[in-house]
Amino acid sequence: MSAKSRRAYFGRRYLVSASHRLHTDALSAEENQATYGKCNNPHGHGHNYVVEVLVGGAVNPETGMVVDMADLDDVVYARIVERFDHADLNLDPLFANRVPTTENLCRAVFGLLKDALPAGELERVRVEETENNFFECCGE
Amino acid sequence: MIYLTRRATFSASHYYWNPAWSEEKNQQVFGRCANRNGHGHNYTLEVTVAGEPDPVTGFVVDLKWLREVMEREVLDAWDHRHLNLEAPEFATAIPTTENLAIAAWERLEPAVTAAGRARLNRVRIYETPEIFAEYRGEA
Question: What is the value of ipTM here, to two decimals?
Answer without folding.
Answer: 0.91
